[in-house]
Amino acid sequence: QVQLAESGGGWVQPGGSLRLSCAASGSTRSPSVMTWYRQTPGNQRELVAFMTKDGMKNYGSSVKDRFTVFRDRAGTTELLRMQMDDLKPEDTATYYCNVRIADREYWGHGTQVTVSS
Questions:
Q1: Beta-sheet pairing, 67-74 with 77-84
Q2: Strands 10-12 and 111-115, how do they pair?
Q3: For position 3, what pLDDT does the model report?
Q4: Which of the four pLDDT bands, split at 50, 70 and 90, describes residue 27?
Q5: How far is the CA of 66 from the CAs of 13, 15, 62, in angstroms?
């Protein structure tokens, strides 16, 4: 049973930084893609950034040059981290981790990021 655990959310002032982590465990296979999405009330989930198993990365236009994703592994747990710099109030959202393993997708429960003064 694949489990996702997100961490690192919180409150930060504009211009500040946070680092989110997503830990995927319970599978012997490495996720082909690991993705961060975000969502605000009343809106659809927005793709923030993803990284493939082969190291390819892609970012949403609103976060490019401010956010960076990278992956590593601790035992059988695959980790997707996202460094978020120069945060803006419009980055306020619930951030969700999504992983794709074989032909299945898994979602985390989300972590809240609030950017305000």
A1: antiparallel
A2: parallel
A3: 93
A4: confident
A5: 15, 10, 9
